Amino acid sequence: MTHPIITARRQFLRQAMGSAIAVTAGGASLLPALVQALGKIPDQLIPGKSIYDMRGTVFVDGRLADEDTYISANSLVETGSSSYVVFVIGFDAHLMRENGRVQFSGTDSFEEGLKLATGKLLSVFGARTGGQTHVAQTTTATIGIRGTGVYLESEEDVSYACTCYGKVDIASIDDPSSKETIISVHHDAPRYITKDGKTGSRITSAPMKNHTDAELMLIEQIVGRTPDFTTLKSYTAPRKGY
Predict the structure, then answer these.
(1) Cβ atoms within 10 A of the Cβ of 49, count?
(2) In angstroms, rounded to a whole number, what is the distance separating the alpha carbons of residues 149 and 211?
């Protein structure tokens, strides 16, 4: 029997996400409504659960997933069209949109890395001990992540990386001389990383797109945290000028 908190949570999120997908091409944003309703959502995912919410077709390790599916630190997670999944691995939380494929690597519930072969993934990471770095890879970039929030898109010839807050080291896979360390407070330096281009210049400025602060607040909340940007006294919207 489904836990009543899960039932209520899923009903709310599906209504809200459904509304957003209906008005936003490709379901790129998960709702202005969520901003107003965050206080009604349980603070943290129920212990022992991996999946917070899902819609459509989701596969974990090649098997069709349901609300009781366990996602480990070395699982393969895939989504179909008009689908999404919100899930937790240890102290890390992720929101993967439609048509995505991500392979995690690690031990038990401790993520060491991920490879986003295709799709769009919003992630928040708990602090690593001893200076350890979580390594994310897309089709064109390697990203060393240090206890932060990031949004990634991975396509055949270009990747997108927004350091929502925290510190990352970005490097082109095909051109090691194209690299950059980014320290961000609030979406300060989104980047495109292209497969082709001038040596040393394959990382370029990009707009902040396709993810929201409401989504970041949601996935931080389900692992018992709040984003750093919520403490900004003058916060009104994502900062420009990158």
Answers:
(1) 17
(2) 11
Burial class (CB in 10 A: 0-12, 13-18, 19+), 151: buried
Question: Is there a domain that residue 235 lies in?
Answer: no
Residue 210 corresponds to which tokens in the numbers above? 């396709």
Evaluate if pTM is beyond 0.85.
no
- How do the residues of the chain divide into helix, strand and coil, expressed in percent and rounded to 5? 20, 40, 40
Is it the case that residue 28 has pLDDT exceeding 50?
A: no
Mean pLDDT score of the chain, rounded to an integer? 83
Whether residue 3 has pLDDT greater than 80: no
For the chain, helix (H) and strand (E) counts, in that order, are 3, 14
CATH of the domain at 186: 2.60.120.1440
Token duo for residue 204: 């370029």
Q: Would 59 be classed as within a structural domain? A: yes
